[in-house]
Amino acid sequence: MNPQSTLPPTPAALPQTGTRNGAGRRGKGRPSEVRLLAGLGHVALAVWAVIVIVPILWTFLASFKNTTEIFSSPWTLPAELRWENYARAWTKANVGRYFLNSVIVVGFSTFGTMLFGSMAAYVLARYKFWGNRVIYYLFVSGLAFPVFLALVPLFFVVKNLGLLNTHTGLVLVYIAYSLPFTIFFLAAFFKTLPSSVAEAGIIDGCSHTRLFFQVMLPLAKPGLISLTIFNVIGQWAQYQLPLVLLSNAKDKWVLTQGIADISVNAGYEADWSGLFAALTIAILPMIIVYAIFQRQIQSGLTSGAVK
Amino acid sequence: MRHGKYPFVIGFLFVPVTLYVVFVIAPYAQAFQISMTNWRGLSAPQWVGFDNYRRLLDDGNFWKAVQHHGVLLLALPLITIAIALFFAFLLNVGGRSSGGQRQGVWGSKFYRVVFFFPQVLAVAIIAVLFQMVYRPNESGLINGVLMKLGFDPVLFLIKPNLALWSILAVLVWQAVGFYVVLFSAGMASIPAEIYEAAEMDGATRVTLFFRVTLPLLWDTLQVAWVYLGIAAFDAFAIVAVLSVDSGGPDGATTVLAMEIYRNAFVYSKYGYASAMGVALFFLTITFAALTLRLSKRESVEY
């Protein structure tokens, strides 16, 4: 640049500058640069894909092996499909029970979270009343607190209500701890809905409650779907809360807790193939659900961060 | 909208507010109170002032845990964001441009789907999975290969100075896909004209990345850093399930959440565990405030 700047700005000098600074390099360097970067990039991407896929695939394979095979030939295909591993995991190791418990707990808690979350969010977003802001910030401040801070008192609150070791207790706690984000997100969503629709409903003699359930909720469907996915996956993955709140009722345990327990308490003479089968039972449904709802799940889970 | 408003508002707020106050607000408030007592669950709690906090200062496990949070706090966001940014760039603007439209490399849709998948799995399940992967004999995925090739097995979770990094690797394994998708969304909203203009001026891919993509993605990066930082303060499920003796060997991987759990529900030291909870709370808040303060800079409007 310096030599050029001393030259008189003749028309001829301008393209020359361009040649010097970029176009020349582009002329020779660009195609090979693209190829090199794309090549390296492909390798890196493929390697990461392998790192993600292989442990899961390897688990699926091992779930059909017996213990000897698992130790002697961890990398080969199983000699035969031993479905009895699954039968053992499902019944003897109680994975079937845990799975069902997870479905029950998450079903109720996500439904409750969405119902109560959207009700509160709607009122806080669209109605002016005394205390509105206080309640809103009370909910939103919950986003800043780590659950571990509340762990000890929470245990005793649930105990004193007689809800320790019950699914009801766990469901209520899940709902309560999911409310801050649900309300934060949905309140912003309800604010964006046009008020003309609501006014038209009121003029037609619609009650506030009917207006909410029959007009506003359907309008908020995209937001509700994102949040439902977010809550289902979050509550399904919970480990800490069930560990504390269901500790003494093994028949009530949820899937994460049950499988972690099988693994932690597996000694050296453990049923490895059964554990691999249990792990597969936990992972496979997620793959199927993810394959079907891949797009919605990605946008649902990232919705929190994009906001 | 005026008549009958209050019954409706109260009716809609009653259940959520009650649940929230009983299960969230009340426990948080009580935690501070309990942390000032020597409560062990049997007799009535006795007020001991700041005794629990003073004991924290001499607690080796507490300091170990804080140290581990420090390592995780630096390494987890740095590694995850670096890998995710690299992949997101390749997937969105790494390929050739056709008709002035920047494209990702071939197969980018497939990669995005695969990378994101671990995010859907529960951390506890992933921890069990990696316990198998890391097993110290020929039944482990990695050591099975190493031993076939004639190497000594690597004791991922047993060697004290390797254990924390092995756990960190699992956290990165899970997180990368999420941030690839997040950054991809951010990159998609950068107008193509900016890239075109930069290219016209002869910018290389590397320049493009550092001079165009990175500055325009600053807000998203900040969000990612805060999220990963908060994840670094948690890490309970992974440590509890994956590490030897839940936080071992010999406290080499313990985290505050693990210590809180152990003190409260194994030793019944409720007052002391609550004091740790309060310490964790202040660490988290300090981190979030510091990050937002330090990373504050003019965001670029486009």
Task: Describe what this molecule looks like in 3D.
The complex is a heterodimer of chains A (307) and B (302). Chain A is an all-alpha fold and 307 residues long. Chain A folds into two domains: 2-62, no CATH class; 88-306, MetI-like (MetI-like fold, Orthogonal Bundle), CATH 1.10.3720.10. Chain A is built from 14 helices and no strands. Chain A is globular. With 302 residues, chain B is an all-alpha fold. Chain B contains 13 helices and two strands, in the order αααββαααααααααα. The two termini of chain B are 40 Å apart. The chains are: A mainly alpha (307), B mainly alpha (302). Chains A and B meet through α2, α3, α5, α6 and α7 of A and α1, α3, α4, α5 and α6 of B.
Layout of SSEs?
The complex is a heterodimer of chains A (307) and B (302).
Chain A: H1 2-6, H2 13-62, H3 67-72, H4 84-92, H5 95-126, H6 132-141, H7 147-160, H8 167-192, H9 195-203, H10 208-219, H11 221-236, H12 240-245, H13 255-264, H14 272-306
Helix pairs in contact in A: 2-14, 4-14, 5-8, 5-11, 5-13, 6-8, 8-11, 9-10, 11-14, 13-14
Chain B: H1 5-34, H2 51-57, H3 60-93, E1 97-98, E2 101-102, H4 108-116, H5 123-133, H6 141-148, H7 160-188, H8 192-200, H9 205-216, H10 218-232, H11 236-242, H12 256-265, H13 270-294
Helix pairs in contact in B: 3-7, 3-10, 4-7, 5-11, 7-10, 10-13, 12-13
